[in-house]
Write a structure and sequence with these properties.
215 residues, mainly alpha, 3-stranded antiparallel β-sheet, 8 helices, elongated
Length: 215
């Protein structure tokens, strides 16, 4: 017999392991909505908080904000580790977040039932326009594919299976809406200024590399 306690245990274990999506397990999602108060109380003991977005259909755990410096209060260890991101991965995340905002502003309705799905080539094109001229094409695609794999590993992209059992071709990826929780509206409002900074940094890296090659 399934009890509320066993349901709570399953929810907590799965949330500690990864993100919970409504479309991946509607039964478990319904359980989370019913038990969210108990989940919040339990994870608070672990210095975590539940982030639950009913409209977008995802939930995950994150570390609670650290209190202001107080020598009397012991600093608790982090259960959810921070993951430093490379410049290139940060750029790709920013571009995907902007694409998702544009998709939603346009209605977000297509053959993928409101999901933003991009082919590998479309992702490559997102990044290409912000790279200096003269970038080696093969090297460019290899680097971007590496970054795509990293973003998928982080859970912001989901690689889709070919439709209808079609033979393996160009990969397609769903941009997961949880990205909106990590790149917020305020950050997005400053996006143009950030991109100008990105381009300056990229140009500087390229100039340095070319200078070293001709030295």
């Amino acid at each position: 017999m399934v009890t509320p306690s066993s349901d709570l245990s399953v929810l907590l274990i799965n949330l500690l392991k990864s993100v919970l999506y409504r479309d991946a397990d509607e039964r478990q999602w319904a359980g989370l909505l019913n038990l969210q108060a108990r989940v919040r109380d339990y994870v608070a003991v672990l210095n975590l908080e539940l982030v639950l977005d009913e409209a977008e259909g995802y939930a995950f755990l994150k570390s609670r904000p650290e209190a202001a410096d107080d020598e009397a209060a012991p600093r608790l260890p982090r259960l959810v580790a921070r993951r430093p991101l490379s410049f290139a991965v940060s750029l790709l995340l920013a571009l995907l977040r902007k694409k998702l905002a544009e998709f939603d502003a346009g209605g977000g309705q297509d053959a993928h039932a409101g999901r933003l799905v991009l082919s590998r080539d479309e992702v490559v094109e997102l990044v290409r326009v912000f790279l200096p001229d003269g970038t080696n094409e093969t090297k460019l695609i290899d680097q971007i594919e590496t970054n795509i794999n990293k973003v998928a590993e982080l859970g912001f992209l989901h690689k889709l299976k070919p439709a209808g059992g079609a033979a393996a071709g160009q990969a397609s990826y769903e941009v997961r809406r949880i990205l909106k929780a990590f790149v917020d509206a305020q950050w997005l409002a400053e996006f143009d200024a950030r991109l100008a900074s990105y381009q300056s940094q990229l140009a500087g890296v390229t100039d340095t590399q070319e200078g070293a090659q001709h030295a």
